[in-house]
Amino acid sequence: xxxxxxxxxxxxxxxxxxxxxxxxxxxxxxxxxxxxxxxxxxxxxxxxxxxxxxxxxxxxxxxxxxxxxxxxxxxxxxxxx
Length: 81
Known about the structure:
- This protein has a six-stranded mixed beta sheet, with no helix packed on it.
- It is built from one helix and six strands; from the N terminus they run αββββββ.
- The longest helix has 11 residues, at 3-13.
- It is mainly β.
- It has one domain: CATH 2.40.50.140.
């Protein structure tokens, strides 16, 4: 086995999420979720289908409605509505 094959197998079996999956949200989509945690920068963290969404000015435990402003491979950013 080659080194790269071993690394690939290790990555697949590590239980980490794959980041090439299509995001469950789109830009300009309005969503509702509970803020589960706070990021290091102080933004609220919501999750939709396990996908992380950073929502500035939201506090942990709040149930908020937000609009998606940016979608990346690993996370999205939203703003409160």
